[in-house]
Amino acid sequence: MVVWTDFERSTIQDIFSKMDYEVVGPAALTRCLIVYPWTQRYFGNFGNLYNAAAIMGNPMVAKHGTTILHGLDRGVKNMDDLKATYAELSVLHSEKLHVDPDNFKLLSDCLTIVVAAKLGKAFTGEVQAAFQKFLAVVGPAALTRCLIVYPWTQRYFGNFGNLYNAAAIMGNPMVAKHGTTILHGLDRGVKNMDDLKTTYAELSVLHSEKLHVDPDNFKLLSDCLTIVVAAQLGKAFTAEVQAAFQKFLAVVVSSLGRQYH
Questions:
Q1: How far apart are CA 119 and CA 237, in angstroms?
Q2: Cβ neighbours, 10 Å, residue 51
């Protein structure tokens, strides 16, 4: 059984209490179908899903998105026994619908981005950690968020001093400085989008052969950056914008991980 702290429990309940399920649910599912188009294969009876406009205007997508949020609401009300709460749905999705379980993670990522865009600055690293912990069972800001949400990534920053808790990480000047450095590094990629592998070849060697960084951490940081950008842009961070942004980050992550293969 998952153990919830008082902070996590109250945070999750607070987030869901502020949600308009008929807005957030459709927005999350719409985003998932646009950003990850291969997930559309499970919705063959939904009619027109040919492009972003069609998906956003599809009433069956909206209805099912709302249903998903109401399903999550059941989990919020039964946080101490989520496995039993979702046992029947688990059987349905695995044995009848044959849904790839990775798709649940994709949808939860999209829901996280929608919530981040709604809550803005209130969606702190600590709040994200609690929210994503719940969903997992059912620049400076980006690096800070990554170190808080994924604490095992702190191992690569042993010379950064105090990283003992969220407050320490948020107030750590070395974290802020390195987060800024990372963004300037991404800026190099933006200016050389047609040759990202060459642009990041030296950094790839550095991270793999000298720093021995787990390449999965590049993806974790890119996820946190996406959420920070979503919180900054709000409604302007549409599903189509997210798709383009994450496509760029995915190529950067691949380029940085090139030396590992």
A1: 13
A2: 11
Start and end residues for every CATH 1.10.490.10 domain found in the chain: 1-138, 139-261
Residue 30 CA to residue 68 CA, distance in Å, equals 12
Please tell me whether residue 99 adopts helix, strand or coil conformation.
coil
pLDDT band per the 50, 70, 90 thresholds, residue 169: very high
pLDDT of residue 27: 94
Choose from 45-59, 119-133, 233-247 the range with maximum mean pLDDT.
Answer: 45-59
Residues 6+ apart with CB under 8 A from 192: 198, 199
CA angle 72, 28, 217 (to 5 degrees): 90
pLDDT digits (tens, 9 = 90+) for 73-128: 888 888 887 777 777 776 665 666 566 777 788 888 899 999 999 888 899 888 98
Q: How many CB atoms lie within 10 A of CB 111?
A: 25
Sign, Cα dihedral of 115, 116, 120, 121: positive
Helix, strand, coil tally for the chain in percent (to 5): 80, 0, 20
238 conformational bin, left if phi > 0, alpha if psi -120 to 50, beta if neither = beta
Closest of 118, 90, 92, 114 to residue 35, by C-alpha? 114
- Fold classification of 139-261 is Globin-like (1.10.490)
Which CATH superfamily, name and number, covers 1-138?
Answer: Globins (1.10.490.10)
